[in-house]
Amino acid sequence: MGILFGLLIGLLMGAGTFITFAAEDPPAPVTVQITPSPSPSPSLTPTPLPTVTPTPDPTPTPSVTPTRTPTPMKKPVITLAIIPSPTVTPTPFSSPKPTATAAPTVSYSKSTPFDALFSEFANKYGVDVNLLKKIADCESHFNPGVVSPNGLYAGMFQFAAGTWDKHRKAMGADPNPDLRFGARESIETAAYVISRWGAGSWPACSS
């Protein structure tokens, strides 16, 4: 009876339980050692990390700047008008003639053997007859053949040879210096010089 009870208890308690009974002894205290069944270790399955798919950056769409088409400017139309140049008729150039210095009116009443020549050439060249007489009297005392002491001046108006040559050529007359001794040629040449340049050639006798 005791053995059966022990077996029953053993079956109830499960494997690993040891029950000791003493045969035909009074029941002793029963020592029960319960070995817990090892709990199965849980199998840890690692949770896979989610795969992060990078989001691609959006491709920038280039902004299109509208191209401004310039409005073509109209080129000005230049019309060339050809203006004919006026025909210029050149004015004939004339050599300026020296202006004669107006000789002062001279009061001279002396009579000479050459009065007719003085009057003739004074009228021809428009000079004062008394001025002609005064210069001739001052230079030579009306002597057509006089020569200066230095021999450079001769005739009634004491012309130098070079001066005589220049004035006679300007008159279109014979420039021979010997004609200084002729009363006619000397008086006419003096009247011509006074009409063109005044009496400045005889400064000591004309004032």
Automatic annotation (TrEMBL):
Record's compositionally biased regions (Pro residues): 37-63
Record keywords: Signal
Note down the stretches annotated as region Disordered. 30-71
User: What SUPFAM superfamilies does the entry give?
Assistant: Lysozyme-like
Q: Where is the Transglycosylase SLT domain?
A: 118-195
- Where does the signal sequence lie? 1-22
- Protein name per the record: Transglycosylase SLT domain-containing protein
**Organism, per UniProt?**
Candidatus Amesbacteria bacterium GW2011_GWA1_47_16
